[in-house]
Amino acid sequence: MLRLIKLELQKLWLNKTSRVLIFISFILPFTVLVLSSIKINFFGFFTLELGELGIFNFPIIWHITTFFASYFKFFFAIVVVSMIGNEYSNKTLKQNLIDGLSKKEFILSKFYTIVFFSICATVLIGVASFLIGLYYSSYTEASIIFREVEFLLAYFVKLVGFFSLCLFFGMLLKRSAFALGFLFVLYIFEWLIFWGAYEAFGNADSAFKLKNFLPLESMYKLIDQPIQRIVMTKFPEKTDIAYDYAVHWYEIAIVLGWSALFIFLSYRLLKKRDL
C-alpha cells in the first residue's frame, strides 16, 4: 500500500497544477476557519465576532466546520479526475502496466491516495476545530468537547465517497472537464428521479427518502446543514424548526456502499478497456 501511495504522490508532485490544487484544497478550509474566528470591523459602525455568537462552542463546532469545509472538496476533485486524465494523455497508464503494475494495483493506488488525502483533510479540520473550540467555547468538560466528534468520521466518509465518484467518472470519460461536468449531470438526474418518485408516490417525504439513497444526495445527507441548529440554540422555543441533524450509521453505510461500487466499476472499466 505504501509503495502505491508513494508512486501516486510522486506523479502528483511532478505536476505543477496538481501541487497548487492540493495546496489550495488543504489551506483554504483552514484559512476560512481562522478568518471566521477573528473580529470584523464594519467601517467603524460595529464589530462582528462570530465566536461571540456561540457557533464555535463545543460540541456544535464539529457540525459547523465539517459542513462548510466539505464544500472545498471540489478543489481536490479536480486533482482526482486529473490523475486519470493525465494517465491517458501522457501515456503513463500503459507505461505503468508495461513496467509490471497490475490493473488492480493501478486502481488501488488511486484509491489509497484518495483515502490518504481524505485522512489528511479530516485531521486538519479536526485540529483546527479543536483549537478554535478551546479558545471560544465556554464548555471545557471532555464529555462535551468530544460529544459529536462523529461529524469528523462523516466528513472523512463524505470525502472518500465523493472522490471515488470522481475517480469513476474520470475512468469512464478519460477527460477531466467531461468528468467534472458529469457531476452536474448526475445532480440533475437525481432531481429527475425525485420528481418521478414524487409523481409516483404522491408525497415529497417518500420521494426524498428515495433520493437519500442516491450518490450525491446520500453524501450530502451525511452532514446536514447546521443553520437551523444554530437558530435553535438561540431561540429554543422555536420547536417548529427542530430537525434530525445527527450522523446515522446507515447514512455512513450507504456512502461506503457507493464508494465500494465506484472503485469496483473503475476497476472493471480498466480491466475490459483496450489500452
From TrEMBL:
**Is Transmembrane helix tagged as a keyword?**
yes
Q: Where are the transmembrane segments?
A: 20-40, 60-84, 111-132, 152-170, 177-198, 249-270
* Keywords linked to the UniProt accession: Membrane, Transmembrane, Transmembrane helix
One Gene Ontology term of the molecular function aspect: ABC-type transporter activity
Q: Which domain of life is it from?
A: Bacteria
Task: Name a GO CC annotation attached to this entry.
Answer: plasma membrane
Task: Show which residues constitute the signal peptide.
Answer: none
Residue ranges the record marks as coiled coil: none
What protein name applies here? Answer: ABC transporter permease subunit
**What organism is recorded for this protein?**
Winogradskyella ouciana
